Amino acid sequence: MSSGSNNNNDEKKLSPTEAAIIDMMKKQNLQRTTPQQNSVEAKNEPTSHAFWDTQPMPHDGERSELAEGPIQPNKPVAEVRQDPYKMPSGFEWSSVNVNDSDQRHELYTLLSNNYVEDDDALFRFDYSPEFLLWALTPPHYHHELLFGVRSTKTQKLVAFISGIPAKLQAYEQDPVQVVEVNFLCVHKKLRSKRLAPVLIKELTRRVNLRSMFQAIYTAGVKLPSPVSSARYHHRSLNPKKLVSIGFSRLGHRMTLARLQKLYKLPLECATSNLRAMEERDVDGVHALLNDYLTKFSLKLLFSREEIAHWMLPREGVINSYVVETDGKITDFISFYHLPSTILNHDDTLRAAYSFYNVATSVPLADLMKDALILAKNECDADVFNALDLMDNAKFLEQLKFGVGDGNLQYYIYNWSCPEMAPNKVGIVLL
To answer: Which of 109, 107, 85 is nearest to 98 (CA)?
Structure first.
């Protein structure tokens, strides 16, 4: 994760902690979709992707031969497997009710201890219970698509996977109902049980029983076969702290004072009439965002209820701001929060992630500079992350974002369409 300016040679060499965080962000997405689940055996796994090669995805050389649309035709529900896949002895399927505080905390504990950690155990993502409630309960979510595996003997939750509903459109094809797959996690001690492929197959079965046959997901590794590939960029907001925890280091010609000056931001936002989003803004944001997303080849179609769920501010989870002029919402910015525990410093790295942004009355770079100011001053964020999706390339270099290491691959399960550049992708997955 590069915290330096693109033009600053002293910042190009990664510190050990910085390299660990890059590794961590890759695994955040790798955990979601690969059966190996970051196990030792994964390091020796052949590139044939034994599990994914059996799935209805475009494989090498096939994409140009496939018609746009489903790879396998939809089945009548009566033809979908009715019985759950068999679990290894000693384990059983279990739905997880994230609206129940005890079960939500149980899921939080599983993810905190097992979901994503870098190889050197320098830090760990900290998905808060409040974040999980937001991420897993959008309008019309299905309780049975939030499930996991328990130990039959102890009833302890030892694995989890989720699928939440969304409406997806790829190119000019008719929109399709899909699920976003996320939070695939298996307890570290049980990864030899090969539970992850069974979790994926069971989720597929349950989704098919609801007459849905497509899914969207991301991964930090290249599986068969991505529709697009994006890259994270990172902007330092608190360089003094990043240096103190070893995230960044000073080059031989760089002092801390110079580094702080390099990344210094104004105390106040420059955009007039910029304020926090409120319930009364939902209709305006709904119209603004959906109209903006029409320009992209891959996008979600949000309902009004989904806009209210995903975009209305929640403390410590999601911040959203609007510009209102003469009663009309003309601009919108949003970012969500995903902190990491710095294990060897007993400290927390507070990271803000760019979500959805629309600028019509001011340049996007000016609006996003205000987003940086708000993330730093109102949310005490240490770093601001953004993918080079949508129109984000317009502000990344100008606002001194550094290019991250590695790509984030976008996949559509059981769907074929031409590959696209990241600036044609209008979807941000958590």
So the answer is: 107
For residues 148-170, b (16+ Cβ closer than 10 Å) or e, as one string? bbbeeeeeebbbbbbbbbbebbb
Residue type, 161: I
To the question of pTM greater than 0.85 for the whole model, the response is yes
Tell me the angle at which helices 129-136 and 101-114 cross, rounded to the nearest 10 degrees: 100
Burial of 192 (0-12, 13-18, 19+ CB in 10 A): exposed
Measured CA to CA, the distance from residue 113 to residue 135 in angstroms comes to 19
CA distance 345 to 240: 15
CA distances for 34 relative to 52, 181, 378, angstroms = 8, 12, 37
Q: Give 121-172 as a DSSP string.
A: --EEE---HHHHHHHH--TT--GGGEEEEEETTT--EEEEEEEEEEEEEETT
Helix (H, G, I), strand (E, B) or coil at 74: coil
Q: Residue written as tokens 């925890």?
A: 245
List, edge to edge, every strand of the sheet that includes 340-342.
123-125, 340-342, 347-349
Token readout for 236 is 């330092």
Cβ–Cβ < 8 Å for 302, 326: no
Task: Give the tens place of pLDDT for each residue, 361-416.
Answer: 999 999 999 999 999 999 999 999 999 999 999 999 999 999 987 789 999 999 99
Instruction: Take residue 269 and report the two structure tokens written for it.
Output: 């936002």
pLDDT tens digits, one per residue of 80-138: 999 999 999 999 999 999 999 999 999 999 998 888 665 556 777 899 999 999 999 99
Cβ neighbors of 311 (< 8 A, separation 6 or more) are: 277, 282, 285, 289, 318, 320, 332, 334, 356
Measured CA to CA, the distance from residue 133 to residue 110 in angstroms comes to 15
Instruction: State yes or no: pLDDT of 248 exceeds 60.
Output: yes
Of 123, 127, 113, the closest CA to residue 17 belongs to: 123
Model pLDDT for residues 183-232, shown as the tens digit of each residue: 999 999 998 888 989 999 999 999 999 999 999 999 888 888 899 999 99
Output the CA–CA distances (angstroms, integers) from residue 243 to 101, 122, 279, 307, 349, in the order listed: 37, 15, 39, 38, 12
Angle between helices 282-293 and 304-311 in degrees, nearest 10? 100
d(CA 268, CA 276): 14
Amino acid letter, residue 122:
L
